[in-house]
Amino acid sequence: xxxxxxxxxxxxxxxxxxxxxxxxxxxxxxxxxxxxxxxxxxxxxxxxxxxxxxxxxxxxxxxxxxxxxxxxxxxxxxxxxxxxxxxxxxxxxxxxxxxxxxxxxxxxxxxxxxxxxxxxxxxxxxxxxxxxxxx
Length: 135
What we know:
- This protein is mainly β.
- The protein has two domains: 16-79; 84-133, no CATH class.
- It has one helix at 14-17; strands at residues 11-12, 22-27, 37-40, 46-48, 64-66, 75-79, 84-86, 96-99, 106-108, 113-119, 124-133.
């Protein structure tokens, strides 16, 4: 499946941000756009999550979603489990999303992948504890 298109009005739900996993102070190892999925690379920088990348084990790496754009070397704030984002359009409530084959993206999944989010309405997702689904 294709990666979801990140909404032009992408935003973090402030109420959920108060209790969600938040990581700040790490630097971007690549250019990162708001709304993209990221992981901590072995060099300690943040890079775009993708199904083919794994620092440890055979599962894709995932920390959370970047809250803002960052150029290489700039600090990035990432929100993970518990964060709600206005993310895309036309989502199906209850649909699960996994780390995508498109770097930094999420894609709808029902059979295989590292599931990291669920649609809670037609436009918003909630980051959930990751679950590996096997075919």
